[in-house]
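Holo prediction. Input below; ligand is glycinamide ribonucleotide.
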Amino acid sequence: MSRLKLGVLGSGRGSNFVALATAVAEGKVAAEFVVVGSDQADATILEEAKKRGIPTVVCPKGNYRTKLEEQIEEGLAEQLGKAGVELLILAGYMRVVKEPLLKRFKGRMINLHPSLLPAFPGLRAWEQALRAGVQETGCTVHWVNEVVDGGSVIRQMRVPVREGDTAELLHARIQEAEHTILWEVVRDLAMRKIPWLQDPRAK
Ligand code: GAR
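Structure of the complex:
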């Protein structure tokens, strides 16, 4: 079977994209990147994509901070569609996804979230965990639907909260787990070891 065509959206550093790209380059994942996109023109994730020769797209920021205007998201969805994305991966993409992306990538869009959902949805989940005083948190890969951080869970990894943890220390420990869980899920989706909500190659 040919390689699964991946699109990634991110708004920042892109360490999860780099970890996934490394696993792909090492031949651990039967996939290839067809596009990396961002709502932030200066995001490091775009530099990381360019270094690897992967096409990039940037959309305008628009007037809201937490979501894109419908027209802008429609344009982004269109570009991702044209690039041939089969699986869309949200890796540090900090906008709430709306109808244009949801419709086009229904059942084939996943998100990485830094907590054990349903605990601590939303922003800065590691800080929420620290404030709540839990002894354990983690990360989740889930299907994306219209409920923010509410789609069905594909896989989770647990991460301990340690005595004296700061937000930075805890987030770094969660990110270590993220750097494994994401490529493992993509590998298993590419091999159909995980059932798709909507298989892009289903006849
Ligand atoms: C990751 O920790 C990811 O879980 C989180 O942003 C970080 C991006 O890091 N995403 C969210 O909080 C989404 N709500 P990266 O840019 O280095 O991959």
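The chain has a mean pLDDT of 97. That is the main takeaway for now.
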